[in-house]
Amino acid sequence: MTRRIALTFMALIVTLLVLAVVPLGLSMTQRERTSFRDTTEAADRTIAAAAEEHLSDHRSPASMRRLLEQAERAGDCAAVFDAAGRTVAATGCPGRTGEGDEEDEAADSWGDLAHQVLVHPKTATRERDDRLIAAAPIGDTTHPVGVAVLSRSAEGMNDRISAMWGRLALIGAGGLVAGVLLSVALARWVGRPLRAVDAAALRLGEGALDVRAPGGHGPQEVRRLASTFNTMAARMEALIHGHRAVVADVSHQLRTPLTALRLRLDLLAAGADDATAGEFAGAQEEIARLSRLVDGLLAVSRAENAVPRPVPVRVDEVVDDRVTAWEPVARERRVSLTGRCGAGLTAYLGAGDLEQVIDNLVANALDAVGAGAAVRVEGEATRERVLLRVVDDGPGMSAAARQAAFRRFGNPEASGSGLGLAIVHRLATANGGTVRLEDTAGGGLTVVLELPAPPSQGPPRGLRAGS
Description:
58% of the residues lie in helices and 18% in strands. The chain is built from ten helices and 13 strands. It has helices at 2-55, 62-73, 101-119, 155-205, 220-270, 274-305, 315-332, 353-368, 399-404, 420-430, and strands at 77-82, 87-90, 124-128, 131-139, 144-153, 310-314, 336-342, 346-350, 374-381, 385-392, 434-439, 445-452, 463-466. The longest helix has 54 residues, at 2-55.
C-alpha cells in the first residue's frame, strides 16, 4: 500500500509538472523569438528611416553610415539598396564577406529579399545560417526608394532560450525531488499505522487476546480504525475470558456433586441386598453416562471459546502416536486400525488440538464399526492445505444425519453422546480449517479435514505406515 500511494502521488506530481513547465517553456520560447524578431525589425526600420533622408531628400549619408557602424559594432551586418537593387552602403558581415560560392549565396539571399520588398513594400524576415535577416522598405510604402536589410545573429537568443529551459528543468527536477520526498513521507504516514493495525489483527487471530493497535498516528480515519479495533479486541477479550470462567465454574460445580453422588451410591450398594444392589448399579451407570455427557459439553464449550495460537504440528507423528494409543481398544473389538501419512507432514494449528480431533474421530469410528471392520487414518499435503482422512467401512451415515452431525446432539443415529463430531468441527474451524463427511467407497463413512499448512509446507516426501 505504501508503494502504491507513493507511486500514485509521484505520478500526479510528474503530470502536474509536465502540464505546468512544458507549456510555460514553450510560451517563454515563443515570447523570446517574437521579441528578438521585433527588435531586429525595429533596428532595421531605424536604418531605413536614416537612409530615406539620403535617398529621397538627398541629404548627407552621415546619419545612415553612423547607424550602419553601430550595427557593425553590435555584431550585426546591414546594407542599403536603392530602388534598382544596387548597394548604396553596407557593413562587413559574415554572411556577405566570403569567397566564392558562400559570398554569392549570401548576396543572392539578400538580393532576393530586397527584390521581394521592392515588389511587395512591407517588412519581411528570413532565417538563414542561424541568423535573422529583416528587410524594410525605404520611403513611401507604395513606391519605395530602396530597401534596408539587417542581419542579426540568433546565437544570443538561442543561448537565452537554452538557459531558460535549463532553469525550468532545474525547477522541475527540484519539484520532482520534493514531490518524491513528500509522497514517501505521506505514504509512510498513512501506511505505518495501517500495518500496525494489520499486525495487531493477525496476532489477535492467533490468540493474543491482550494485543492492541497503537493509536494517535496517521490520518483521522486510520486513528479511528485503530480505536475501533482496540474496542473490539477489548470486548472480545472480556467475552472470551467470561466464557472461560463460566466453563471452569460449570466444570467445578457439576463434577463435585456427581462425584459425591457416586460415592454415596457405592456406600449404599455395599450393604444392600442383591435386588437393591442391581438398582444401585443401574443408577451408577446413569451417573457415569451423565459424567461423560458433562465432559463432552465442557469439551465443546472449551473448543468454542478457545482462540488457538497456531504452531507447526507434525501430523505424521501425532497420527502414529494416537493410532498406537487406540490400538489396544481396536484389538479388543477386533477392528483393524492403521495410520498412513506422508513423512514430515506438518499442519499449522493450536497445540494439542490435533490430538483431540483424532481421538474423537477414532473413538466415533470404533463405536460405529463392528468386529472385522477396518479404520484408516490417512494424511497428505496439497499446495496450501493438509488433508487428513479417517476412513471406516462401517454402516455409514444417512444424508440427514450427515447434515446435522456437527451440531450438539444433532445426530439421532449416534450411539454415544453425539458430541464428538461437534468438538471436531469447532476445533477445525477455530484453526482456520474445514471438516466434511463423505461416503466411503464400498460402504462406510469418511471424515475429511482440511487444515492450514505452514508457508514452507511442501508435498510429502514419502509414505510410511503405522500399526
